[in-house]
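Could you join me in thinking about how sequence relates to backbone shape in a protein? Would you write everything just below, so we can both look at the same thing?
***
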Amino acid sequence: MRTENSATEPEAIAVAERSAPVTATAAPRRPAGPGTLLAALGVLAFSLTFPATAWGLEGFGPWSLVGVRSVLAALIAGACLLALRVPVPRRAHWAGLAVVAAGVVLGFPVLTTLALRSATTAHSAVVVGLLPLTTAVFSSLRTGTRPSRAFWIAACAGAAAVIAFTVQQSGGTLTRADLYLFGALLICAAGYTEGGRLAGVMPGWQVIAWALVLCLPLAVAGTAVALSYEPVRLTGHAVAGLLWVAAGSQFLGLVVWYKGMGLIGIPKASQLQLAQPLLTLVWSVLLLGESLPAAAPLTAVAVLVCVAVTQRARG
């Protein structure tokens, strides 16, 4: 019996030693670098959306542009899903995918395109600069994440800088375009939050791909109706703008964006978008010939400081 005990005790100790490290490292902290880079690439893609939309509106009506971009993006996404033989998502994921589709695929493009008929790309980009804070709030409510106080202070400071810039540029008045933009940022924040949550349980590119495919029947029907009422005039700008908002903004940008959110979390990824309005201002000058407001460089510095703080804060 003694021999038996001496044989089993070391064995039990070895099992305990093997299991202890597993418990201690069951939830290793993933490096933020790759996720931050991917999310930043998404922001860069999104920053071109408004200038590209302005180009697209030179040849398409607002409803036609939104419809055609959604159809093209859905065809690209569907081809990728078929080529890689991706299985259909579980039934539990379809409600979340519907929120992504309503917010990111349909709602945001429709409302921002309507706003850009009367508002400049610079003004529109700055108003939508409130999207990071809105997304962080939605994420906190939906997923239960509780970022640190330093994060919220920096996020609110960045939003305040964006709001001050907006008020200074618009003379303190709200227009119908502003109402479209405020609606767009609310519905987009919901779509980003739900997509970021789903990106934690399925590949990020599949989140937007299935959301696009989900909207394809409605997009085809809407496009057919819109094209019958709105004349189309194909120009180099119109075609380039359409191709970018379809392939770049609506698909590729969202692929890297949701992947980045899945890696670093929704709140931190969302705050990278504080830089998006300022990037759009640069594109609006280079591509559309709009004038750069004098307050833009100062706002840029303030926003970049806030972004740096949110990325370092405990999220």
